[in-house]
Amino acid sequence: MKLKYRVLTLFACIATLGLRAQTPEVYPPHWWTGMKHNTIQLLVKSADPQFGKSDVTIQYNGVTLTKVNRLENGKYLALDIAIAPEATAGNAVILFKSGKKTQKVNFPLKPRDRNRVYAQGVTAADFIYLAMPDRFSNGDPTNDKIKGMRDQSLNRDSIFHRHGGDLQGLINHLDYLQDLGITTVWLTPVLENDMPDRTEHGYAITNHYKVDPRQGGDALYKKLSDELHKRNMKLIQDAVYNHVGLYHFFVQDKPTHDWLHEWPSYTNTNYKDQPLFDIHAAKTDQQRMSDGWFTRFMPDVNQNNPYVANFLIQHALWSVEEFGVDGWRIDTYIYNNLEFMNRCNQALLDEYPNISLFGETWVHGVAGQAFFTRNTFNIPFKSNLPGLTDFQANLYGIMNAVNEPFGWTNGVNKLYQTLAADFVYEDPMKHVIFLDNHDMSRFYSVVNEDLDKHKMGLAWLLTCRGIPQMYYGTEVLMKGISNPDGWVRLDFPGGWPGDKANKFTREGRNEKENEAFEWTKKLANFRKNSSAIKTGKMMQYVPEDGVYVYFRYDDQQTVMCIMNTQDKPMEIDPKRFSERIKTFKQGREVTTDRIHNVEATLTVPQKYVLVLELK
């Protein structure tokens, strides 16, 4: 009898554990009172294949269940709920009844913190620092490996394995960033990437509502946001709508047959943006561009599926509210369904009017790039995306300016020509300009480790129109070529205990590195207080003999920038620029405090940008 009793007890325990394991999971896990977006759709997942037949009720004043959507996969339900304006914070109880079994799930309604500063937007007054958490600094070695996750790699000698950097590492170095002149931090995605390998970059999300525990989890991400805001700094989140990781729960167990874009055999995107706006384009090229998979390990989600669209839009809103996000960088923007993107952008802007949105538009040609943002074209499709990552100013602008010999259409003329096409944009000041990023060869390597050219690039970055973004380590001359991309994602020296050199300190940097750091710091901190650069206008002059002159100005300040791309000093006659110099007689060189007479000939050193605040 004792044995029989023990066996029955064991079975009872197993059954109880099974029931607990089947407790439905709700996405999003909570919402807030007082949101404009107060009609939401909960995606509910259970391990029970019969779960979709459940009778559902919600018990809470001010919360109404308006529709139960029974999806093809019996493990899922989609619940449409309305939250009344007078609803108060608390736990809404959702009951799922199937036969004699009733399961209860609490759905918290949280109060909005009206005193918290967030969703401020990132503007041309800011200076963005892009960092990969896994490669910046390891602040907590205890989370380097998490038991049960598929990727157990930890090898700093490999460019493709995890290295252990985390959000605590960022928090530990906020003093460094603030001293440098940084106002905003943009991190590559921090959400869970429970993939077997290559999880260091973060772009293969497997759970939208969970910050990767190897980064420190939800609580530490909130702490980073709070610490930034205490310093009057800002946070940009990297959004990935186009695809997810192969091991995402809704890829491994799809709610509907059309949750993903799937083909008779594996079909990769063609990576070609032109079919999306080409009036001569073939429909098959358009479909392959938008619906093809980014890689075999990143399935393309079907944003035409209304449940998918609701899931992604609600997650965007939830993230801003939950983590106090100020700006939204949208990965692989051009590969998304563009009508869906307009809808998603509008939902964010309706809820958070000041938030900034900028999409990754790695395309070729100003007109093609302008198609994906607010533009001046009279065309059938009109994007509502406020800003973008300005690849044209990078690929066909500053890169040619510093590396290509001067000619009628070459060298710095390409930078001038690219910016001359700004008339196609509704507001080019909302575009993010940059020298490099996590997918591109580092700028210091692109200029063949020429410090003068590197400083020219930094000077342009911090004085041109738009929002400047700098990739981590650029300020200390980190280098690397992007094929393969792991070489541009190396660890910041000094971010790990025992590193041979600590580039976070003056003592740990060599002479050249300190020169680059101080140059960046001087310009970035001048920029913080420069109304002309932050909000003023820009006037540029046609380059002559490899010299390009442009002004940033408003009613309070005028800044003159003279870029000499030649390998020799050049003399400049200020009279040519009298339209903007006007009655100014002197200019203070921002990087040296030296005073220059702008009524006489100016001599600009070779490969140098002379930045003058006119007096």
Automatic annotation (TrEMBL):
The keyword Signal applies. Its EC number is 3.2.1.-. GO terms for molecular function: hydrolase activity, acting on glycosyl bonds. Residues 1-21 form the signal peptide. It comes from the Bacteria. Keywords: Glycosidase, Hydrolase, Signal. Residues 130-527 form the Glycosyl hydrolase family 13 catalytic domain. SMART domains: Aamy. CDD domains: AmyAc_bac_CMD_like_3 (cd11340). PANTHER family: ALPHA-AMYLASE FAMILY MEMBER, MALTODEXTRIN GLUCOSIDASE. This is Glycoside hydrolase family 13 protein. It comes from Ohtaekwangia kribbensis.
